[in-house]
Amino acid sequence: MTLDHITGPPGPSAGRRLRPPTDPCPQGLDKLAADGEEITISSVARAAGVHRSLIPRHSDLHAAVLARASEPPPGTTTGTQVSRQSLLADVANLTARNGRLSAHITRLERRLSEALGQAAWEASGLGAPADIETLKRRTTELAQQILDLRGELAERDEDLEAARAANRELMAQLNR
Known about the structure:
The chain has seven helices and no strands. It is mainly α.
């Protein structure tokens, strides 16, 4: 037994020497197609009884598997058939949509958490009131009202003192 095919320099047909003279891969491919099963590299290798790494190493065999996989199964109508490429595109689109929805849900959860945290903070009385500007404006208004009332009170005190002085004067004139 010689090991020339293993130890010798690889030639242009070195990859072909690994396949047996009666290649079971095309028969496996034909069997899958006739049975109407899904044609993939793994399924063809399984049907032929070879390792799946054998098929991609042989460009002619790899091209035949890919070409047969893109063909519609026999006995199907061409009306509403869905191709493998369209299904893969749908899966990719749905995966991207799921990613976008997941990111959106994360943003909504963060906003809800912030809103609930703010509401709990305000309800506990630990945080500042919600509308500080309104409270400052109201404080200013009340301070101005206090000043106005003090001014009115001072005027009334002066009026009362003047009335008392007039009353004392009138009582003094009556008593004379």
